[in-house]
Amino acid sequence: MTQPIPDPPTPPPGGLPPTTPSLTPATGGLRTVSLRRRVTLMALVVLLVVLPITGLAVKAIFDAQAERNLNTLLNGRAQLAQQLARQNVAPANLVRRIDADGIRVTLTLRTGQQFGAPPVEPTGKIREVRATLQAGQRTRGATLVLTADTSLLDGASRTLRRVLLISGAAALLITALALILGMRLALAPLDAMTSLARSIAAGRRGGRLQPTRTDTELGRTAAAFDEMLDSLEGAERTARGSEQRMRQFVADAAHELRTPVAGLQTAAETLLQLTPDAPSHRREELELLLVRESRRAGTLVADLLELARIDAGLELRRRPVHLRALATTQLDRLRLTAPTLTINFTGPDLSVFADPDRLTQILANLLDNARHATTGHGQIDILVKPAPDLIEIVVQDNGPGVPPQARERIFQRLVHGERSKGSGLGLPIARGFARAHGGDLVCIDRPDGRPGAAFRLTLPAATTPLRP
């Protein structure tokens, strides 16, 4: 049964037809041929190419130089004969003085008398130079024939070729042996990297190559290898720490939730077991307990969700925020809940580009903590101070304060202070909001040096004074 062939895709108007990703055949992975064998073979191949070329070049230069030397020798002897003839040297003496090894000299006078060796017939193996003497009483007009047998040059060339072949073969053999031994030493750093990688894979941490030089190829590779191990082990430690903190956080959250849930369960079971003639005030107490514990559990769940959002990356809705108006709203709320408190606001009227809801949560948490610390009968101050690149908001009280050794611990999750009545998540959430804005929240000494606690909120922003 044949299937219909789908129509080709229609190109978009005025554009090119849609392209499909090209399919590349799956490769078998990284080729892991022995590096020693590869380098050795490559070096031998290079030598096999270079040595014959070098040998041919040497032989060609030798043959050319031998030919040039032979021609120079014959022409030099002919010029010497002309000089001796001008000195009126006797023919026999002239032949004897220009005679040399490998050269055959024949001098024929005008009378036909010959001196020296008898002439030979020129062949391919014979090199001949003829000259007519221009001076001398008996040698004027005489013919001088100089011949040399080139078979001697051919023999020397064959000997040179044989020497080059033997020396080339010996060079290849010696080079192969030297490469086999030398590559063991040259690739020892790679063996060290392999051993270290296997030890790391086996679970042994902390080993490093520690190269003595980092300006070479192996040095840079070893340094990069150590940096990779540092990053991997650092990431592993971070992951283990995060996992441990997450387990602890989940355990603490479950512990915190268990109290309100247990209260809800107890109140609900007691309420169900009440008889119709039970006192109404008892029923109201149980109902209030249900409401209180359900709110407590709901607040804890909401705080946990806020922390989850912070960890996942909080999305801020930034817009200009008037700090005085924001603080005034929170101070008015605080005056209603704690009318006996003395509350002050100091600082210029500034605006900042931030998320107003998150800033409100930060200020509300800090003010509520200050109210609990002063038990509703102290003094709370809000100080606003601009800086070149940030704005500082300090919330301080005249309560017992926070010991220096606990000032960072109180920002950990589910950590309760001595006077804390919450879930232990308010300050971590407030710091998370501050850092999401690019700022921070820390606990410091009061700027005026008096007893009490002070929390400084910094927001990186180009603050702008408001016009009256």
TrEMBL record:
Show the ranges annotated as biased composition (Pro residues): 1-20
Q: Where is the HAMP domain?
A: 184-237
Keywords tagged on the record = Kinase, Membrane, Phosphoprotein, Transferase, Transmembrane, Transmembrane helix, Two-component regulatory system
Spell out the CDD domains in the cross-references: HAMP (cd06225), HATPase (cd00075), HisKA (cd00082)
EC number, as in UniProt: 2.7.13.3
Q: Which positions, given as ranges, span the membrane?
A: 39-62, 163-187
Full protein name: histidine kinase
Query: What lineage, starting at the top, does this entry show?
Result: Bacteria, Bacillati, Actinomycetota, Actinomycetes, Propionibacteriales
